[in-house]
Amino acid sequence: MRAKRILGILIGAILAVALVLAINTARHPSRQMRVDTPPPLPVDADAAAARLALALKCATVTGLPETDATENEFARLREHLRVSFPRVHASLKPEIVGGRSLLYTWQGTDPALQPIMILAHMDVVPIAPGSEGDWKHPPFAGVIADGFIWGRGAWDDKANLVASLDAFEHLLAEGYRPRRTVYLASGADEELGGAQGARRIAELLKERGARLEYLLDEGLIITQGVFPRLDPPLALIGIAEKGYVSVTLHLRGTPGHASMPPARTPIGIMSAALARLEEQPMPASIGGVVRDMMQIVGPETKGIDRVALANLWLFEPLISARLQKQPSTNAMLRTTTAPTLFHAGNKENVLPSDVEATVNFRLLPGESIAGVLEHVRKTIADDRIELGTTPIRAEPSRMSRTDVPAYAAIERSVRQVFPGTVVAPGLMIGATDARHFADVADNVYRFSPMQAKPEDLARFHGTNERISVANFIEMIRFYRQLILNSM
């Protein structure tokens, strides 16, 4: 009898839990915005693709030693933009900031309305040495082939810049005048941290007393086949950006002959410290932006995933464990640890006297650089190793709001131009120029209207960077719609 009573209690508990799961799942209906899809803007696809291709021919590379040729490439790009978008340069106020960066001002008709800004940088990263032959088309040839526009910067970030200008050009041709002022800014050193470009533009706006309703920079994209059990494309709008700091670890040892090594060599000590940092990362959690994302995406998923995402109170440990297995999703849950540099020794039979390593951390919102340094200090637990940081560093950004007209304008534009796409807030794990505008913008968002499948993600900063002509036309339509929806 006792066993039957226990079994009955267990069955009752299971049924109760199942009922709670079902009720919670039913109480999480779709939260996707309903929109009317406007007729698509007619765009001359060949001409638009050619404008981007010509921009990709300009090798505006940062991160390599500067030469006169580098300056010439930036000048070539500015001239190409001037010639390709005559209405923009005639009707807007163009300025060069910090020697290379661009700021366009499209004056609105209602000075009482706060301005908005679109931000897209013009510099690109170098080609990885030795990979030049792996490109299907030369990285700075600006080739249009097989339905794609090929070249370094096609994704990061000249497509956003050229598409924005194309959208402005179309609106001007229609005789459109915005109610609120619209800025278009393009930094020339985003890949180096933006000190001479975006930061100076932000300082200039602050000096002029400008306060932005919102800013939209490059960021998260539209993916398909990445989120489990989600069939439609997913557009994540970055409402926060992880912080950035590289911690240097320096160990001064005693030089000596390799034939008589001590029990613990300087390289061995440093290697053990790095191993401890990798083995004991900062804790993972499903909170903040990621939790908001899951609650909005959850109702659009199928099967057990929909149930699990509607009942994080029960399934959070399982979901967290699954996400931590993949680098791309693990990065959403924690401050990441990545050893990136190691310097030691100059001869194979000599023990080095100095060993230095650099570990890059990308900080979750809510954590701090001071907290990372304390974590490193406690984890390596070795007073012989001195800690420092490299000059480029940034605390995590604040979270921008999703319950404001600014976010709704972006969401509406995505849903209108990319019908059926699921839209949700997301966390930007990389660094962008947007972080420099925290003092002049009420809300900062990070989103690029680019479509990608899992196999495409390696093209960012990688080989065979490209964007489809069809997607580039959609980008032009998106930016045009965004302006209209923001007024």
How would you characterize this protein structure?
The chain is an alpha+beta fold and 487 residues long. It has two domains: 45-225 and 398-485, Aminopeptidase; 241-389, Alpha-Beta Plaits (2-Layer Sandwich), CATH 3.30.70. Helix content is 37%, strand content 21%. It has 14 helices and 17 strands. The protein has helices spanning 2-26, 45-56, 68-84, 86-91, 158-173, 198-207, 266-279, 288-297, 303-310, 312-323, 327-333, 369-380, 405-417, 469-485; strands spanning 93-97, 101-106, 116-119, 144-145, 148-150, 182-186, 214-223, 234-241, 243-252, 256-257, 336-344, 350-351, 354-363, 385-389, 422-428, 444-452, 466-468. Strands 1, 2, 3, 6, 7, 8, 15 and 16 form an eight-stranded mixed sheet that branches. Helix 1 crosses helix 9 (303-310), helix 2 (45-56) packs across helix 5 and helix 5 packs across helix 14. The radius of gyration is 25 Å and the shape is globular. The protein starts with a helix and ends with a helix.
Task: Supply the key terms.
globular; four-stranded antiparallel sheet; about 475 residues; Alpha-Beta Plaits; alpha+beta; Aminopeptidase
Summarize the structure.
The chain is α+β, with helices and mostly antiparallel strands and 487 residues long. The chain folds into 2 domains: 45-225 and 398-485, 3-Layer(aba) Sandwich (Aminopeptidase); 241-389, Alpha-Beta Plaits (2-Layer Sandwich). It is built from 14 helices and 17 strands.
pLDDT < 50 stretches: none
Structural class of the helices, strands and pairings?
alpha+beta
Helix content: 25-40%
CATH superfamily heading of the largest domain: Zn peptidases
- Kindly provide the name of the CATH class of the largest domain: Alpha Beta
Overall geometric form: globular
Q: If you average the pLDDT, what whole number results?
A: 93
Q: Could you please say which CATH topology of the largest domain applies here?
A: Aminopeptidase
Rg calculated over all Cα atoms: 25 Å
